[in-house]
Write a sequence for this structure.
């Protein structure tokens, strides 16, 4: 693998951040690259080294802080390095020296910042968490630290795209039950199936929560096997495991 690739969003210009893929790590085999997933079947030593490499590429000298992601809607406020990973799917902070990290392998990583208030956030938005309101919870937690929604900018990083995300009728009905207008995030597929636009739905939820600017980066984890890990792609290929990539943000 080449050096660590750090993908940055124009919306977060000036904010220490990065969406990382699989380039630049030390893992091998099906996890080859920058796998940062503690819960994967990868060598723990390699995972630990990859987490150091990822943090160094985005926020040198910062302490990487992550959560035990559960596909929920809880956001935790972090003021110091955490001894244990709380069960949550988003983090916010106003403290320098902390690198907030969110792990994904098709779900949407969302990085947020209010530069004026010096407040940042990171959210893991899979379909369950997105529907439950994980981005709403992140904005609320940032507001409690002094951020204002209209000043918040957000970027949605590499995630499974609509063209790659086939779901069934029952899946669509869950979203339609929450709001009939949600049907616009689904395109017709084969009989009894649809294509879900997770990125567009997350962008919608961010806008509704009052976020001033949202950048959807349009990077498909499923379609780009060289660049990103993908749970669904690994499943479809019958692979024995899969890696996780990380998105990181901190206070500048």
């Amino acid at each position: 693998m080449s050096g660590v690739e750090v993908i940055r969003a124009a919306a977060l210009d000036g904010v220490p951040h990065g969406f990382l893929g699989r380039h630049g790590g030390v893992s091998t085999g099906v996890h080859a690259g920058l796998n940062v997933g503690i819960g994967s079947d990868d060598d723990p030593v390699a995972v630990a080294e990859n987490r150091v490499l990822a943090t160094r590429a985005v926020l040198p000298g910062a302490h990487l802080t992550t959560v035990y992601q559960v596909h929920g809607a809880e956001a935790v406020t972090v003021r110091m390095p955490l001894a244990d990973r709380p069960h949550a799917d988003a983090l916010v902070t106003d403290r320098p020296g902390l690198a907030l990290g969110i792990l994904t392998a098709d779900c949407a990583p969302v990085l947020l910042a209010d530069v004026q208030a010096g407040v940042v956030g990171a959210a893991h938005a899979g379909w369950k968490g997105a529907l439950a309101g994980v981005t709403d919870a992140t904005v609320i937690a940032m507001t409690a630290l002094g951020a204002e929604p209209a000043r918040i900018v957000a970027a949605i990083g590499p995630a499974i795209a609509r063209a790659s995300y086939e779901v069934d009728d029952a899946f669509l009905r869950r979203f339609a039950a929450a709001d009939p207008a949600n049907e616009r995030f689904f395109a017709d597929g084969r009989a009894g199936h649809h294509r879900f636009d997770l990125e567009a739905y997350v962008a919608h939820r961010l806008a509704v929560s009052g976020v001033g600017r949202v950048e959807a980066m349009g990077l498909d984890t499923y379609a780009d096997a060289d660049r990103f890990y993908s749970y669904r792609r690994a499943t479809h290929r019958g692979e024995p495991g899969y890696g996780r990539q990380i998105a990181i943000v901190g206070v500048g």
User: Anything to note?
Assistant: The two ends are 29 Å apart (CA to CA).
